Amino acid sequence: MNREKIIEGIKKAFEVKVPRKFVQTLEMVVNFRNVDFRKNRLNIRFALPKGKGKPNKIIVVADESVLYQLKDLPVDIKLKPDEVPEFPIKELKKIARKAVVYVQPQHIPLVAKHWGKVLGGRGNTILPFVGDPKTLIERGRNMVRIVTRGKMVPTIHVPIGTEEMSVEDLADNAMAVLDELGKKNLTSNIKNIYFKFSMSPPVKVM
Question: Which residue, 8, 72, 152, 163, has most beta carbons within 10 Å?
Fold first, then answer.
C-alpha cells in the first residue's frame, strides 16, 4: 500500500464526513485474509508519530520523589502507592479503556492486585514506568493499540487522529500502522483498508 493511496482514501473520508457537534476521530480499519488469529493474535502498542489529536489520559503510580519530577508534565492522575487502594474504582472504570497506566516496577504487584481486574477487563494493562519521564509521558499520550477483536475476526480498528488534523499528518499515522503490521509480516495478508470518521460512512482504500 503506497502513501498516495492512503492520502486519497483519507481525503475521500473528509469528503463524506457528516458534520457533528464534536470532534470526530478517524479510524483505520484493516481486514485480513489467510490469517488464523487463533495462532497469530495481535496486541501491539505504539505511539502515533503525529499524535492522536485526542491525547490519552496518563496515570502514574510512583514514589513521591518520582511524582515530584512530573510536576511540569501533562500527567492527569498522580498517585503514591498507598493511595491506590483508596482510589475510586468507579472513576477508574470511566477512564480505564483510554488511559495509559504507568507504574514503578516495584509497585506493579500492588496496582495489579487492586486494578488488574478493571484494566484487564477493558483490554488495558499496566506499563512499567522506567526511562526518561518526559519521553514516556509523550509516548503514552499518543499511544494506540493494534489488537484483534476475538480469535476468528480478521479485522483491526485503529484510531489514527481526528478531523482537526491535516491529511498529511493522518497519512503519516496510517503509514505507521502499516509499518507495525509489516514487522509482524502481515502486509501481504491485507485484504482491504477503510477509513471512517466516528459518525460518518466508511471509505474503501483498496
Answer: 163
